[in-house]
Specification:
It contains three helices and eleven strands.
């Protein structure tokens, strides 16, 4: 159910009495916020301050989706996942970032883009918001124009998987990457609904944050003057 009577996340704030930097990294920071959850009851919560990311479910004319296998060191696994990347370029449009990732990681361009689903990866401990795009009307990038991949992206085997087969892999516990799980289930649901649930590629995305928490003051009144 959607609409006023259905479940819907809403923006909310609590007073942030203090903030201290725990760790500053090249991609994300960790801060500790003292948050007043109710009058007179404050707790400290460590937060990973993440720039956000995009993922791309690329679907070919045969209804197959592209998955790539990449080593993920924290998980100690080689995981099948859609092309994806960080929103680490200041001011970059989310669709432009998705186009870049599809080009760089998969040697593909797409003529049709839609928003498939938005989600927060770890809302209990991170600010990361992730938008999953559906890319269709695909065409390969000519060999002379392809991106030179490095590090973990240098050798990423690719597999085109029928959507229903990908759903079975998710439900069997064979796929664990969150963008793969969310993206596969979302594209199957959207397909079964005649694509009526798709949103424009430039649909509003209020959950996406800009700037770093460490660059913003605390918000002692919970009014939104801080972050």
């Amino acid at each position: 159910m959607t609409g006023p009577d259905g479940p819907r996340d809403v923006a909310a704030r609590r007073p942030v009495r203090a903030r201290r930097l725990v760790h500053r990294g090249p991609i994300w920071d960790v801060v500790a916020d003292t948050v007043e959850l109710s009058p007179g009851h404050a707790v400290e919560r460590e937060v990973i301050d993440h720039p956000g990311a995009v993922a791309v479910v690329a679907m070919d004319d045969d209804g197959r989706v592209l998955l790539q296998r990449q080593y993920r060191h924290p998980a100690r696994r080689e995981m099948w996942e859609p092309p994806a990347g960080l929103l680490d370029v200041d001011g970059e449009d989310a669709r432009a970032a998705a186009e870049r990732e599809l080009y760089e990681e998969a040697d593909l361009r797409a003529a049709r883009w839609d928003v498939l689903v938005d989600y927060s990866t770890t809302p209990g401990g991170s600010t990361e918001a992730l938008r999953v795009f559906l890319a269709r009307d695909l065409r390969p990038v000519p060999a002379e124009e392809r991106f030179a991949r490095e590090d973990e992206e240098r050798d990423m085997p690719a597999l085109w998987v029928p959507v229903d087969e990908a759903v079975e892999a998710v439900l069997a516990g064979d796929l664990h990457n969150p963008s793969a799980v969310v993206g596969v289930l979302a594209v199957a649901a959207a397909r079964d609904r005649g694509w009526a649930t798709l949103r424009p590629a430039d649909a509003p995305w209020p959950e996406r944050r800009t700037g770093r928490l460490t660059d913003a003051p605390p918000d002692p009144d919970g009014t939104g003057d801080g972050v």
